[in-house]
Amino acid sequence: MIPHQDQLILKKNKEIMADILRLSKNFALSEMTKSATAERLGVDNSPNSIHLVNLTHLAIHILQPVRDQFGVITINSGYRSPALNAKVGGSKTSQHCNGQAADFESFSTPNPDLAKWIAKNLDFDQLILEFYDGKDPNSGWVHCSYNLMGNRKKILTALKTGGKVVYRNGFVSK
Description:
Blueprint: H1 4-20, H2 29-33, H3 36-41, H4 49-70, E1 74-77, H5 82-87, E2 101-105, H6 111-121, E3 126-130, E4 141-145, E5 154-161, E6 164-169
Parallel strand pairs: 3-5
Antiparallel strand pairs: 1-2, 2-4, 3-4, 5-6
């Protein structure tokens, strides 16, 4: 068993390495693994080497081009360990658990415009305009994934209907 002080040193070194490790020009591993829920509940949210490869490709092929086109984007959710995914009520098949997906938004560009630009300009696996209310251009967020094994270019809109999440094909508003 590792003494408590050594555990704290190891944890701090992981955090430093995550800040240093760049996935692309503007994205560090730390912003793809940061989770207030994981911190609050003491859940390890460290990706393995396969997840790290996937996160790097996600950053290079999706996040960096979006950043280059629209400026700063905020990552709301990146990698989620299976334990963290369960704590936040995520799908058991979530691509977040493989390091293949991120939820993000831009405060300078409406989320529907961001999603439509991605659909037109990037290779992606799944693109979801999540919880856009059809009125506030900054409502909801964009979920996008990238799969090294091949991308389906699947476009969906997630809406809350009757208290349940409903997925519809394409981009739709309420």
